[in-house]
Amino acid sequence: MNTPLRRVAIAVMLMIVALLLNATYVQVIKADDLRTDPRNSRVLLDEYSRQRGQISAGGTVLANSVATEDRYKYLRTYPSSPEAYAPVTGFYSMQYRTTGLERAEDSVLNGSDSHLFGQRLVDMVSGRDPRGGNVLTTLDPAMQQVAYDQLTSKGYTGSVVAIEPSTGRILTMVSTPSYDPNQLSSHDGAHGTQTWEALNADPRQPMLNRAVSQTYPPGSTFKVVVTAAALANNVATPEDQFTAAPNITLPGTATTLENYNGSNCGSGQSASLYEAFRLSCNTAFAELGVKVGAARLKDQAAALGIGENRAIPIPVAESTVGTIPDNAALAQSSIGQRDVALTPLDNAVIAATVANGGVRMEPHLIDQLQGPDLSELSKTKPVSLGQAFNAQVASSLTNLMIASEENTAGGGKSSRYQIASKTGTAEHGSDPRNTPPHAWYIAFAPAQNPKIAIAVIVENGGDRALGATGGKVAAPIARAVLDAGLRGG
After folding, report:
1. Is the pLDDT of residue 45 over 90?
2. What is the pTM of this model?
3. How do strand 55-57 and strand 134-137 relate by DSSP bridges?
4. Membrane-crossing residues (predicted)?
5. How far is 55 from 179, CA to CA, in rounded Å?
6. Where are the domains of the chain?
7. Sign of the C-alpha dihedral, residues 362, 366, 368, 370?
8. Active-site position among 65, 80, 220, 319
9. Beta carbons of 313 and 327 less than 8 angstroms apart
10. CB-count burial class (<10 Å; 0-12, 13-18, 19+) for 124
């Protein structure tokens, strides 16, 4: 072969190799990116030609797909109180893709999950239009609606999470303000864009799922964790005495820490742990926290799931105890301030663990996944995450929380069952003295046979401003939700 022919052959071979490499890059490496690119109309047409599966709760359809007469055969709709369920369902949008369960269970809902391979094969052979599978949630519709109505009727920004202590089933997950996912699932691109821009421009952040995506200082609700650490490590008993002073100076500083409204903890010079918990005395718990020590406190918090990276299957923000470099920081952390930050879900888990005798169950939002023919693909089984503390400690905490409930103000108390609870009034912001506090309430009921554990947070004092407390603002909401779940039971 002469030199010109050899050069031509080499050039042709290089071009063939380049074509093969390009085809491989496009069809293998970039395949997923191209497939999910919202500008890919062919993918959109294919995706919207299949009927997406349902999301439901206790027989109530939360999301489904209905036939249309436009080029996209199906429209995603949210027919049942969409704002109440939006933090759970999320949205399914042509332009902005998915959030919530629409994202977490997308492969089941769109029919591409490996569990549905047999169904896809049958559909292909029979010529039937392919369909997606269904997601059955653990939510209790009555509790969900009451929680949403309680928050929105007062114009509150906040969240409610309720859990079944013995199984970890999430019964309620509400976040307000919320939004209507129907406005984002529209086939009208201009309308979808207008809605998206308005929601993102809203300073109230209606698309933020405060139940799992936002952390807050827990305030005095964190005293449950401190008390658990003290009891579990034999550092203190409910009868042990601590300072009743209205204020103390933090170790090694000139900074003063005081009780709510600067009041004395009871009538004497000292107060028992029982009395300090019942009255939620900051000075006593600062002293107790230093006695417990940072290592034990962090270990107890970890045993309760604080600091874990989890999904339910919606991703959950990581709660934290924060850094505790010295005893001054430890004293502040022991009343749920400084760098301590919890999601409402994690605070509900703490209440549920006490209710379950110290055994922490994995929280979950999915009860069952189904095929298009309603056949069961999988069912979530309760999973124990270990003993956070023993049953005796749980019993002592229950008695303390019953005493706290008896001292807690606010409406909605029921004579049908006993509640065990702890309130929290959490300072925050750059000027906490002049910033309305977050109002917390965690509880479970019935106290001696718990069926529901709950956490409620109302941001920035709700309608009570600087006078807000967990008892006045958050407790009535939780009691209404508990009543809805325990009605007739």
Report:
1. no
2. 0.90
3. parallel
4. none
5. 17
6. 219-372+382-486
7. negative
8. 220
9. no
10. exposed
Give CA separation, 306 vs 293, 315, 330, in Å.
17, 15, 16
Cα–Cα distance for residue pair 226/213, rounded to 1 Å = 24
Instruction: Spell out the CATH class of 219-372+382-486.
Output: alpha beta
E strands, 359-481, in order: 359-361, 366-370, 376-379, 384-387, 420-426, 438-445, 452-458
Count of positions (residues) in the chain: 489
Identify the residue whose tokens are 């009871």: 266
Tokens of 233: 């490590």
In angstroms, what is the C-alpha Rg of the chain? 27
Residue carrying structure tokens 């005395």: 281
Residue type, 78: Y
Tens of pLDDT, residues 11-30: 888 888 888 888 777 676 77
Q: What does the pLDDT read at residue 326?
A: 95
Q: Is 220 known to be catalytic?
A: yes
> For 301-314, what is the mean pLDDT?
96
Among 197, 193, 153, residue whose Cα is nearest residue 177: 153
- What is the rounded (10 degree) CA torsion for 210, 213, 218, 224? 110
Q: Are 354 and 422 in contact (CB under 8 A)?
A: no
Eight-class DSSP state of 262 = G
Show Cβ contacts of residue 428 under 8 Å, excluding neighbours closer than 6 positions: 216, 217, 435, 437, 438
Rounded Cα distance, 300 and 322, in Å: 14
**Residue 114 pLDDT > 80, yes or no?**
no
Backbone angles phi, psi at 332, to 5 degrees: -65, -40
Q: Nearest-CA neighbor of 308 among 357, 354, 349, 358?
A: 349
